[in-house]
Write a structure and sequence with these properties.
It contains 6 helices and 5 strands, in the order ααβαββαββαα. The chain has 192 residues and is α/β, with parallel strands linked by helices. Strands 2-1-3-4-5 form a 5-stranded parallel beta sheet, sandwiched between helices. Helix 4 links the parallel strand 3 and strand 4.
Length: 192
């Protein structure tokens, strides 16, 4: 248990020291200005994005998380042309075929893309509206993804905190209303 704690602490300190706060600030502004936020990832990246989507919903932001593969790849952006949109792509290596194709589809629809990735050599970086690169030295052949999981969640948590702080008072109200709604729903479900 102590080794895992040390690994996670070391990982957080490393990513904190290399974090591009300016890029995160631009990403926060882009999400804040968007009516709809699409979130794309695979595996553990998608899990982290699902937590991020839940956070965004707490402050009234419409978001939709999608896996980067499968039948759900059919996009319906044309139905939302009257909405300001952006997308967040989260990937360790950012080099799989589906990610590249989704990136191209989003670009074709003029949807700004925030790339959060661990691959500073990726060919798509210059085309992204915002690129947030992390490095944690993990490879595909590893026992577990402790470092990358901690890094991805930390970056998304910092991004959410920056978004929240842009309209702090309003977002505090959103969170209180969200909590009241959940409480009412729980009372209804449990018959209280």
């Amino acid at each position: 248990a102590g080794r895992i704690l040390n690994l996670q602490h070391q990982t957080l300190m490393e990513v904190y020291s290399m974090l591009d706060l300016e890029a995160l600030g631009r990403a926060a502004a882009l999400v804040d200005q968007s009516d709809m936020v699409y979130l794309y990832g695979r595996g553990e990246s998608l899990l982290a994005l699902n937590y991020f989507a839940a956070d965004l919903r707490r402050i009234g932001k419409i978001s939709k998380s999608e896996p980067l593969d499968g039948f759900n790849r059919i996009f319906h952006y044309e139905n939302r042309k009257n909405m300001t949109q952006c997308a967040v792509l989260l990937s360790q290596f950012a080099n799989n075929r589906m990610l590249i194709q989704n990136f191209r589809d989003l670009k074709a629809q003029n949807i700004p893309i925030i790339m959060i990735h661990g691959n500073p050599e990726n060919i798509l970086l210059k085309q992204a509206a915002v690129s947030i690169c992390f490095h944690n030295g993990e490879t595909n052949s590893k026992f577990g993804s402790f470092s990358s999981r901690v890094v991805k969640q930390y970056i998304l948590d910092v991004l959410y905190a920056m978004i929240f702080s842009l309209h702090y008072e309003k977002n505090v109200e959103h969170v209180h209303r969200y909590a009241e709604t959940v409480d009412q729903w729980n009372r209804y479900v449990h018959g209280i």
